[in-house]
TrEMBL record:
It comes from the Bacteria. This is Uncharacterized protein. It comes from Helicobacter fennelliae MRY12-0050.
Length: 51
């Protein structure tokens, strides 16, 4: 199973509990097609399962 990548782009300066992220789906060959958004810090785990 292919997995995409989520890159942490830093904390949102207006609300530090939210992290700016970029998601690169596994089928994307061009990083300009990354999906940008924010996620709450409670949704983040420091564990890397399956690696």
């Amino acid at each position: 199973m292919k997995q995409g990548f989520i890159l942490n782009l830093g904390k949102d300066p207006t609300n530090p509990k939210w992290l700016k992220v970029a998601y690169i789906p596994p089928e994307v060959k061009d990083t300009s097609k990354a999906i940008y958004g924010v996620i709450h810090e409670s949704q983040v785990s420091s564990q890397c399962e399956g690696f």
